[in-house]
Amino acid sequence: MAEDLSIIQGTKQEQYEALLPQVKALIEGEPDLVANLANICGALKEQFGWLWVGFYLVKPAATGEEELVLAPFQGPVACTRIKKGRGVCGAAWQKAETIIVPDVEKFPGHIACNTLSRSEIVVPIIANGEVKGVLDVDSVLLNDFDETDKKYLEEIVGWIRF
Ligand code: SME
């Protein structure tokens, strides 16, 4: 199967509507978590051109506590570990809900992995009632994320199987 993505122009909703079936086809039937996370990042980055698209997964740290640990991503290098409640990612983990940050400078405790990031959305991956990780997307534009992103990104992370 050719793995070329069909990239389309259009409204944000039209772009998601064209992209989602392609993402589903890429990951459906593939049991490997890392492969699927990697392809989700690649597809989102290629369609939308955001600064950073990637995953953090909940894993045990040396302290015995759990932390978010960097997983497949596309974009500049990023911080490796994030504690629960820290930054936007840690807050989305703690609350088990999607957080949209229109202006990262106004989010108390925001972790600036890259100075070019101006707005952000973090979507928790929930399986069996537990947060297993988060999808984090950063944009160089202020106020780049809204309820449309929340709806479609939540749908995509709902397909991830552990
Ligand atoms: N900004 C995030 C940290 C991760 S990077 O943006 C890739 C946060 O505040 O949790």
Describe the structure.
The protein is an alpha+beta fold. The protein has a domain at 50-157: Beta-Lactamase. It contains four helices and six strands, in the order ααβββαβββα. It has helices at 12-27, 33-48, 87-95, 147-157, and strands spanning 52-60, 66-74, 81-83, 99-101, 119-127, 130-139. Strands 3-2-1-6-5-4 form a six-stranded antiparallel sheet, with helices on both faces. Helix 1 packs parallel to helix 4 (147-157). The chain starts with 11 loop residues before the first helix and ends in a 5-residue tail after the last helix. The protein binds methionine sulfoxide. Methionine sulfoxide is lined by residues 52, 78-79, 82, 87-90, 110-111, 113, 117, 120, 136, 138.
Short characterization:
The protein has 162 residues and is of the alpha+beta class. The protein has helices at 12-27, 33-48, 87-95, 147-157; strands spanning 52-60, 66-74, 81-83, 99-101, 119-127, 130-139.
Radius of gyration: 15 Å
Oligomeric composition of the shown chains: single chain
Give the cofactors and ligands: methionine sulfoxide
Task: Provide the helix percentage.
Answer: 25-40%
CATH topology grouping of one domain: Beta-Lactamase
What profile does the largest beta sheet have? 6 strands, antiparallel
Number of helices: 4
> Strand order, biggest sheet?
3-2-1-6-5-4
In CATH terms, the superfamily of one domain is GAF domain
Structural shape? globular
H/E series: HHEEEHEEEH
Head-to-tail CA distance between termini = 24 Å
